[in-house]
UniProtKB/TrEMBL annotation:
Alphabetically ordered keywords of this record: Dioxygenase, Iron, Metal-binding, Oxidoreductase, Vitamin C
Identification of the protein by name: SM-20-related protein
GO biological processes: cellular response to hypoxia
InterPro entries to which the protein is assigned, alphabetical: HIF_prolyl_hydroxylases, Oxoglu/Fe-dep_dioxygenase_dom, Pro_4_hyd_alph, Pro_4_hyd_alph_FE2OG_OXY
Boundaries of every Fe2OG dioxygenase domain copy: 107-204
Example of a GO MF term: peptidyl-proline dioxygenase activity
Cofactor names: L-ascorbate
Amino acid sequence: MNTCSFNDLNARVACIIDDLAEQGWSLQTHFIAPTLTLELAEECRKRAAAGLLVQAGVGRSALAVISEGLRGDHIQWLDAGQNAACDQYLAVMDAVRQALNQALYLGLEDFESHFALYPPGAYYKKHLDRFRDDDRRAVSVVFYLNEDWRAEEGGALRLHLADGSCRDVLPHAGSLLVFLSADMPHEVLPATRERLSLTGWLRRRGAAPF
Ligand code: OGA
Ligand code: MN
């Protein structure tokens, strides 16, 4: 993997592009300003306290089935214009989308993202970020919001790589994990404390399922 120690957004996005082309995934620590990361974590907690995060199904449609055996997180989708920190995050991800399109010709058209809160003990079993009836999700993007996370608290995102090996990524505040949605089976391991993230997808043009 490339070692990226630059500080500016363009350089980090260049790293993501190289990593995706080479290995299909990229991890960037300290991806955005710590103050913005903190504001996003606060917003997530505020929404959770207000009861706005709901138990996740396995799809976005009204037909989504709550599947406790598969995933135990609570989510709320982001919409533009509700919160300044969220809008800043969406603007950064739009810049990432445009850069990936220019470099890799992915034809990414939009970005959808949700806050996710995993209560202690919750997990998301091994899966691919694609629906059987909808292949628009091309690039998965997970941004973590957990200050002072310790390895013994668990909660890693485990990537199952093509060579049969695994790579565990801890959900440290400020870390951004990006991977090709169609190629990368992954799972979320249970943690001993609450685990917060913004999980999203850069999507290609395509027909929405009915
Ligand atoms: C997902 C997912 C990973 C994470 O929501 O599809 O895999 O680390 N999330 O929260
Ligand atoms: Mn996933």
